[in-house]
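Hi there. Long-time user, first ticket. I'm pasting a complex I've been working with (about 644 residues overall). I'd like to know whether the download I got is complete or cut off, because the file seemed smaller than I expected. Thanks.
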Amino acid sequence: MPPLIDESKCIRCGLCAEICPLGLFRFDKASGNPPEVAFPDECWHCNSCVLDCPKKAITLRVPLCQMLLHRDVRQLYDAGKE
Amino acid sequence: MLKITQFFETDVLVVGGGIAGLMAGIAARDQGADVIIAEKADTRRSGSGATGNDHFLCYIPEKHGDDPRLVLHEIADSMLGSNMDADIAMRFLNESFNVVKSWHEWGINMRLHDDWTFMGHAFPGRPRIFLKYDGHNQKAVLTREAKKRGARLLNHHPVLELIKDENGVAGALALDVSSPEPAFTLIRAKTVILATGSGNRLYPSTSTPGMLFNTGFCPGCTAAALALSWRIGARLVNMEIPFRHAGPRYFTRCGKATWIGMYRYPDGKPLGPFVTKATRELGDITGDVWNTSFTDLMCNGRGPAYMDCTQDAPEDLAFMREGMASEGLTSLIDYMDANSIDPGKHVVEFGQFEPFLIGRGVEIDINGQSTIPGLYAAGDVMGNFRADMGGAAVMGWISGKEVAAACANRSLISAERAESDAWLNERLAYYGSFYERKQGAGWKDANMALQQIMNDYAAVGPHRVRSGSLLSAGLEYLRQLREQAVAQLSTPCSHTLMRATEVLDLMDCGEAVIRAAMERKESRGLHQRADFTFTNPLLNNKFLEIWREDGAVRMNWRSKRQ
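Hi, the file is complete. Here it is re-exported in full:
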């Protein structure tokens, strides 16, 4: 789930792993690999990693069950008048 | 066996590096005290203020006039007012403007449009008490200010236990989670300030029952301060009076006052009487006043309730979008953009979120001190005063000043004595056992079991009841769960060990909630007793204290301080 790291943009700085309030990432600088999203279902979707990534390499995928419930206002109130 | 690998000593240990903790550290350093801030994540982006806020409760004489009681009166009528001792609130108000000015000086924009601007969470014709500000950089700025003053930041160090001697609090045991292999850290301190934030993950998510981390406030905040206080014998207060926030569904996120819109029934009729058109100055305060409206509408079939911004002036819509960034809702903005959800065209469903612990917890005096000498508390963990962002900043600041002064009369426990402390060594073995056990229950098992018990046996209104028999059953089931969890928890790394300790902290909070709810034999707010359906006027100005002493749980009703 949640943070998706674009490996081609990631510079392996590890900042996301340092600052994530929920400690989602594991990062081993010596490995040369990007941070691993080790605990994806603990994401709060706070956007800290997205905001702080110096290369804008991270996006969030919001789980389907957290869809934002919304309706087009015209459809809604017009339907109410019928 | 897991060992203590780091030893520190300090005048002031701050537990939690959120807004309250950083402000406490800054104030204590300004008074010359030596400060360590232990934070479970990283102070640059931790806690419920991680990415921002946009409303700051405060009293600014040039805007409100000479009498702070005018602001106090508004707080009492707000959703923050029920658990408030007025003497603490008055001190908060009198010191709040200085904190606001400091923040602005440090680079957090508190003066939108070059003036102190109060808007949102407001009634028509009444004074406004929430300063609108841009807090998107607040954690980075406060971290910088704390470091600049020489506060030592101990990131990735959740505190597991407090230690005390005959003079009161004496330090703490922390867990080093900076690498997958856990280790313990022992911090000897003359004084401790608890600032660990609100208590989430105690009740199941209302919007998404299967999701432990879809919470309005930060789900990494699990009321550690309350559990640490409980285990060391400090008094907690107002634990049985529940609180629920509200906001968009199913993407749970607090900040409803940042939305500039009307709450409406599906046919367009407004939910509340306060405004006919939402503006940035007032918003629609119905969601604060009729807090249960969203649930009521689902239960009576007239819902769902919608947040309707479609009639906003275009400049108010743009202002709202900026406000969402200030409030730290950028993930919500990104999501809406990606899914073509436009608040100018779409209404968004709102709902009540799960109960959580904020403004019920550690009982403090006017200086922020708990009932244990040398132990202070600030921010969302306070049990007898609540002002959210403003409360965290100002009460953190006050407690930091007070604690530094108190250090002069307190001594440091010796290393030999701290390290040979029987309670400490028992706790090392206790936490270490979860890591050393190779197979067993995961922390999520335990967390979900706790949520089930709280939801079924210590239910929170509206339309849900508590009773003597239900609460008593819940207390016994919680005892069974704790016993099984302690015997079975297995945590293969530092991260999962931290999560397990959070759940054990929440179990202590759950016990305090259930026991206090049994004692409150009346219905009040969201504490609805099926066996005592009335509100007892004799309890109108009473607070219920609960604490542990000599192995027993004690409770006391005291008068609210006017």
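A couple of notes from our side: The interface with chain B takes residues 18-23, 26, 38-39, 41-48, 50-52, 60, 62-63, 65-73, 76-77, 80-81 of chain A (CB under 8 Å). Helices of chain A lie at 15-19, 48-52, 73-81.
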